[in-house]
Amino acid sequence: MKVSKRVAIALTVPAIGLAGCYAVPVVTPEGHASWYVYPPGVPPGAIPPGGPHPQGATGAPMPATLPARLYPANDLATQTGVIHGTVTNMMTGKGRFLLTYQGETLSGEATRVDGDSRRGVASAYSPNGAYMSCEYQMNTPRQGAGNCAFSNGARYQVHIGN
Question: Of 16, 44, 55, 77, which shows the fewest CB atoms inside 10 Å?
Fold first, then answer.
């Protein structure tokens, strides 16, 4: 069997690039699998302190971008149906909120309520003046639920995470 040089190079380059690295699967408390690639010299059992969430060079947890789905909770909201957006949990008690509503992009922030690490409020605004306010509760750092109200009177129930 004759192997072309192109195929041999295509198979060799990734093998050299990954030589010495470890890919370790970890199951999070929510039941999701996460993969960590450890560079040479880091033992494969070196799970970051504080849990199985990825950490950056400073040892702080890495931000997680989560899907947010808003389901209509009143007649006005049923006119637009389900809204999809994202929440980026910075793992610091703060987050970023982004969604499109009736053709406008609303962006804002989410903040945990002082004294309660699970409860929070979120606000978002568009350059054309539309806004929304939400109250939510996180079950885990990657899953939660709450209620949102828009400036036009539409109300939604929000589900965060998978």
Answer: 16
